[in-house]
Design goal:
Layout (H helix, E strand, L loop, with lengths): L4 E4 L3 H12 L4 E4 L3 H8 L4 E5 L2 E5 L2 E3 L7 E6 L3 H9 L5 E9 L6 H8 L4 E7 L2 E6 L2 E6 L3 E4 L10 H7 L3 E3 L3 H21 L11 H17 L3 H4 L2 H11 L6 H7 L10 H10 L5 H16 L6
Parallel strand pairs: 1-2, 1-6, 2-5, 3-10, 6-7, 7-8, 11-12
Antiparallel strand pairs: 3-4, 8-11, 9-10
The protein binds NADP nicotinamide-adenine-dinucleotide phosphate.
Protein name: 2-dehydropantoate 2-reductase
Function: Catalyzes the NADPH-dependent reduction of ketopantoate into pantoic acid.
Catalytic activity: (R)-pantoate + NADP(+) = 2-dehydropantoate + NADPH + H(+)
Length: 305
Amino acid sequence: MSTTWHVLGAGSLGTLWATRLARAGLPVRLILRDHDRLASYQAGPGLTLVEQGQAHTYPVTGETPDTPEPIHRLLVACKAYDAQAAVAQLTHRLSPDAELVLLQNGLGSQDAVAAQLPLARCIFASSTEGAFREGDWRVVFAGHGFTWLGDTSQPTPPLWLDDLHAAGIPHDWSTEILTRLWRKLALNCAINPLTVLHQCRNGDLQTHHCEVATLCLELAELLECCGQPAAAQDLQSEVERVIQATAANYSSMYQDVANARRTEISYLLGYACQAAARHQLSLPHLQQLQARLVNHLIARGLPRD
Ligand code: NAP
């Protein structure tokens, strides 16, 4: 019998993973916030994934954090700012050999979760897959992509990667997961805040070429200083390539602000600025960008962190 996949968070990525694992016949259970959310979920037929216009519903079993059964494998699919508290509610249920997969964007939340669970194996993930919620319990698979998984303290891949093969989740084991997460963070810092401040699509940043280039120089300096020279390599040309390739898209941070949702700023630009401060590195444009973004969020009544 395969180990059950407990999925914490039934949002976009949680649903994208839970439905594909369930479709492959693997045991999956969904952990919802509380009894109200569980009742709402149980009033419907299950989780629906819309792929290329086709909707399929999977009756994945739901539960709340206070369900007594132990958890051996936990996929953490909350936002970065919720991950630590959401996992803390489950510590009493985690088995001594528990493994966690952390899907959060940016950096900072993974270390916070790992620090509260010194005995568990925490696997970090970086994904280019895209999904969004069309409503409660219904998610659209918007962009096919790839997920890299890795463990900063143990290079051996877990055997359950076979489950991901069976579920058709494109992935690879990476011994350089931190480099991948730093690179993605740097790309995000160079693009997303500017799309919020200029209120534009990614492609419109081509008219702010100098501003982007200056940020890339500072971000590359930061990556070098943080021991991530590989993540710094050709950063500006990749940023320009991403801006072009995703020209018609609105960045995730733009969409969060436009929909009056909390952003993950503290785990992206905020994390970068904190790392710079720790290294006593002066990165004036990056710091100014953060100040402008925070002011923008406050002016819209959104959390500054
Ligand atoms: P999301 O749609 O907002 O889903 C987050 C889910 O976590 C929500 O369903 C929320 O519950 C749940 N949650 C929060 N606290 C909880 C708790 N204490 N117990 C149980 N559930 C809890 O977010 P997402 O878009 O999937 O993003 C998750 C992470 O993946 C983020 O770091 C994001 O940056 C990253 N990511 C997302 C994508 C994407 O395409 N969506 C792509 C790459 C990376 P409620 O429903 O009750 O609010």
